[in-house]
Amino acid sequence: MRANRFSNVASTYDKHAYPQRALADSLSIMMPDCNPDKILEIGSGTGILTQLLINTYPVSKIHGIDLSLSMINLCKEKFSNANVSFESSDVLTHSRPNYYDLIVSSSTLHWTNDLLFTLKKIYKNLKPNGFFVLGMMLEGTLHEIRELKKEIAPHKGKGLILPSYNKFNDLILKSKFNILKKNHQEDKFIYPNTHTFIKAIHEQGVTTIPRHDRPLNKTELSKLVNLYEDKYKTNEGIYATYETSCYLLQK
After folding, report:
1. Confidence label for 215 from pLDDT (cuts 50, 70 and 90)
2. In total, how many domains does the chain have?
3. Domain harbouring 170, CATH code
4. In the structure, what pLDDT confidence band is assigned to residue 170 with cuts at 50, 70 and 90?
């Protein structure tokens, strides 16, 4: 995962985080009925899920990690609770074997390059019988803009490749987690127009492209905007799809 992707948008992320808030809300009803002593939040971002954790487990020690130092500093300013701490750290190097009672992550793990390795790392950091609550963005997310980009500029790369629901379920089982609960859904979020939509995802770091890809030029971007308006319009504006899944897992 690239830290600067989100460090550059820390101040604008929350303004457009409707899909991320919806996924965090869905995760909040997946939380296990227990009294965890130590909780790790992976990809704490601007603290959307952190606040829900505080509400659910007010006496637990919550430690949030994120690659973005800007996001971490923002959370340190936002939360003064003595039981909540934050650290700029990578999930792949954050090693606390058999340490946490509960690990949570929302809208984060889809940025990792090796999901199975990441899941196994998280598994090791949980105590025996510990819980992992996870919210994922899946391959149907923003498929409209990816399909149009492929149509307009097929030579410029595919961008971020998200896992399918079935493939991700297989990875969970391979990582040895037990699936206690899961929820899979697809939602359409409405934006006034394509320009507003593209600005929103840009100010969340979503449009940052992989190093091997090339951005659309002005002509291609103008064509994408016009095609999007034609193909995905509603009475209220245009829509964008988010495919997500939520899990309650146990070690």
Report:
1. confident
2. 1
3. 3.40.50.150
4. very high
147 domain-assigned: no
Whether the CB-CB separation of 41 and 63 falls below 8 Å is answered with yes
Q: Between helices 48-56 and 18-28, what is the axis angle to 10°?
A: 20
Burial class (CB in 10 A: 0-12, 13-18, 19+), 176: exposed
Question: Which of 85, 209, 109 has the alpha carbon at shortest distance from 156?
Answer: 209
* β-pairing verdict for 38-42 and 100-106: parallel
Residue 126's pLDDT band, with cuts at 50, 70 and 90, is very high
Q: pLDDT tens-digit profile of 107-124?
A: 899 888 899 999 999 999
Asked if 132 and 122 touch (Cβ cutoff 8 Å), the reply is: yes
| Per-residue pLDDT reduced to its tens digit, 179-210 | 999 999 999 999 999 988 888 887 665 654 44
From CA 89, how far away is CA 125, in angstroms rounded?
Answer: 14
pLDDT given for residue 71 in this prediction = 87
Residue 145 lies in a domain: no
Structure token pair of residue 228: 């999007």
- Asked, for residue 209, whether it belongs to a domain, the answer is no
What is d(CA 15, CA 202) in angstroms, rounded to the nearest whole number? Answer: 12
Query: What integer pLDDT is reported at residue 9 of this predicted model?
Result: 42
SS3 41: strand
Q: Cα 228 from chain centroid?
A: 24
State the maximum Cα–Cα separation within the chain, in Å, rounded to a whole number. 56
Question: Token pair for residue 240?
Answer: 């964008």
